[in-house]
Design goal:
This protein is mainly alpha-helical. It is built from four helices and no strands. Helix 1 packs antiparallel against helix 2. The longest helix is centred in the middle third of the chain and has 25 residues.
């Protein structure tokens, strides 16, 4: 069975977390999606690159989530979420591609 790349999981967590929070109008439920995807991605990052890679990319994931909020005030919610998700996917891919 093939795995879903951690870059895809991380991006999906950011987009999916926002989508669930927005459409259900329950922010904590969106947070569950965000955290679950982040946990799955972090486990893969650790397996591929070790603890240091996992910590660094997890910090980037949290920063992407936090950064989407002020960015949304400038460009709108969905463009901000897609921007940070794309950035997170690119960072994850760039760091883990040579290792895994």
């Amino acid at each position: 069975m093939s795995r879903v790349p951690s870059s895809v999981v991380a991006a999906a967590g950011l987009v999916g977390g926002y989508a669930v929070a927005r459409w259900t109008e329950k922010r904590p439920l969106g947070g569950v999606v965000l955290v679950a995807a982040g946990g799955v991605a972090a486990r893969e990052w650790r397996e591929v690159g070790g603890a240091g890679v996992a910590v660094g990319l997890t910090a980037a994931y949290v920063a992407a989530f936090a950064g989407s909020h002020p960015l949304a005030k400038r460009v709108g919610a969905w463009p901000a979420v897609f921007s940070v998700a794309g950035g997170m996917a690119a960072a994850s891919w760039a760091v883990t591609r040579a290792k895994g």
